[in-house]
């Protein structure tokens, strides 16, 4: 089979790799139907995730069909269409028992495309299949479901829920890429008074408007002052960091009100300064987190009911074998207007979302 293999910082290729096989009785082998590329994959290619060794097949988000299961797998069988979660769960360790699946100590956590071969291939081995894949409702298209493998649960859990968004809140989201846009969509479920999106790219700010942001701001034009103006000088109740660079994190700490919450979602490759000389007196809560995907079943039900605008985030589609081209388009989002790229499925063309 073929897979997209990491060879070191800045180097990866679509090439022949060995077919996966059952290694443990809890494994499943899945034929990949639809996959997508995550911003974290770009961090890996930059060398920001050193535990990814050369020779690893990348990817941790996919939908496909079960083709083989180990003897201990009980919840899925060959022929089932499933969503592969970005997080693998043993179900037995202390963290899994607390629903902190991202911190699994039993051989799970974020392992696909990081510690073991991932989903950007024709076939993938999924450990602990009973807890790490989800049967897909017939009403949910594979091209939509793949966005529930990572970005929607990440935005919902690490941003909206960790941030404690409540009705009537002012919510500011720094970064209007796929994660930030999914955070806008899921924050709206809690009826905040207003959502303010901050980004550098006009196309992404337009997408933020379409997804439900009440106000948008160019990151170069004092967005913290806009937040202050809209809140009578108080600041936002919840601020989410969805970029992963020091400047955006520090901006978030300037936008939050006393007693407010900064929820860091972004993957950081460089140190960020924590200005405790200013924050210590403000009763601010700062949370970080890797997604646990405990919300995936809920989000799947919402998607089946038409409550999540997943399709609006997909701007480009490709055949699976064009992964190298898709990475190039996704990495140059400022030029291409890419939000989320999807590979595989039934159609391959540029999709421009409409208002």
Textual characterization of the structure:
- The protein is of the alpha/beta class and 355 residues long.
- 27% of the residues lie in helices and 24% in strands.
- Strand 11, helix 9 (246-255) and strand 12 (256-264) form a beta-alpha-beta unit.
- The longest helix is centred in the middle third of the chain and has 13 residues, at 151-163.
- The radius of gyration is 20 Å and the shape is globular.
- The relative contact order is 0.15.
Major sheet characteristics: 7 strands, mixed
The CATH class of the largest domain turns out to be Alpha Beta
Judging by the overall fold, what is the CATH architecture of the largest domain?
Answer: Alpha-Beta Complex
CATH superfamily of the largest domain: Medium-chain alcohol dehydrogenases, catalytic domain
Kindly provide the radius of gyration, computed on alpha-carbon positions and rounded to a whole number of angstroms.
20 Å
Beta content: 15-25%
Helices and strands, in order, run as EEEHEEHEHEHHEHEHEHEHEHEHEHHE
Number of strands: 15
Count of DSSP H/I helices = 13
User: What's the number of domains?
Assistant: 2
The average pLDDT is 95
Say what the CATH topology of the largest domain is: Quinone Oxidoreductase, Chain A, domain 1
Shape: globular
- Percent helix, as a range, is 25-40%
Secondary structural class: alpha/beta
